[in-house]
Amino acid sequence: MSKLVIVGTVAFDAIETPFGKTDKILGGAATYIGLSASNFNVDSAAVSVVGGDFPQKYLDLLENRNVNIDGIEIVKDGKTFFWSGKYHNDMNSRDTLVTELNVLEHFNPIVPDSYKDAEVVMLGNLHPLVQQGVLNQMTEKPKLAILDTMNFWMDIALEDLLSVIKNVDVITINDEEARQLTGEYSLLVAARKIHEIGPKYVVIKKGEHGALLFHDDNVFYAPALPLEEVFDPTGAGDTFAGGFSGYLAKTEDYSFENMKKAVIYGSTLASFCVEKFGTERMQNLTDKEIHKRLDQFKSLTQFDIELT
Asked: φ and ψ at 217, to 5 degrees?
């Protein structure tokens, strides 16, 4: 069984959408990635940091989903990273109300010794120096290193970000971030420029409009499943990353053809994430539900046509 190292925040979120609002609930990139990847029964470990205020029940939740938590540092006299946001009516845009870095400000990730030879590394959205620090700890070069990032790091740490991007195989970003990173409006041209930096594969997420996978001159498009209601988009991108990396770690096939399937799995799991607030929907997801939704994806995209 392949090992999967997951790096990212384990945090508190407070969310407001047109459907309601929450108090502090479980959030963080590593949390969503871990819960999503756990559906593939891979040997995964989360690397993160929390404060003494972080409930044991949340750590137990990850452990119960077979996510190793030895790499989650607990700073007893510190406070856990907290983010609060309010979504607009279109659910595609949001305002950040509060960001408290707390223990994340001085986070120095430590990969557990038993996972330093992991075949797949999923670098969640964090400072690029933290992401590079994880890669530096690996005793063997991962067969697949995947990086997720955001425009914030492009604004304040572009040089460090470009440096770590050179060392990964896959980058996942949204369309706005791809355009900012490259200065190109066309996503085809943007993907080509990102290839030139280093990654062999580029995944550009387009929210409710699906995702694009680029490799050399090959392009694959996966739509997002049309949903009647979206309660909370928070964590959807991280859930996608968890499904994507979890499937690849399970199958140990890093070809373009298999990566297409990984994109579909990522999109499928993300479609569940948005149905309830926070991680609630991901905590009790069953294989039967996933397979049923995969069938929906298949019928959505499959057709026969006669070329005349």
From this structure: -95, 5
pLDDT digits (tens, 9 = 90+) for 215-259: 999 999 998 888 888 889 999 999 999 999 999 999 999 999 999
Q: For residues 240 and 266, give the distance between their C-alpha atoms in angstroms, rounded to a whole number.
A: 4
Find tokens 């030139």 and name the residue: 196
CA distance 200 to 228: 36
Catalytic residue among 23, 90, 238, 295: 238
Instruction: Establish whether 95 is a catalytic residue.
Output: no
What distance in Å separates the CA atoms of residue 253 and residue 241, rounded to the nearest whole number?
16
Q: pLDDT confidence of 93, banded at 50, 70, 90?
A: confident
The alpha carbon torsion through 143, 207, 30, 160 (nearest 10 deg) reads 70
Residue 1 has pLDDT above 80, yes or no: no
Alpha-carbon span 124 to 11, nearest angstrom:
13
C-alpha dihedral over 287, 147, 56, 269, to 10 degrees?
-20
Q: What is the pLDDT of residues 96-123, one digit of tens each?
A: 999 999 999 999 999 999 999 999 999 9
8 Å CB contact between 149 and 177: yes
Q: What angle do CA 179, 181, 183 make, to 5 degrees?
A: 55
Q: Answer positive or negative: Cα dihedral of 277, 248, 289, 173.
A: positive
108 touches 233 (CB < 8 A): no
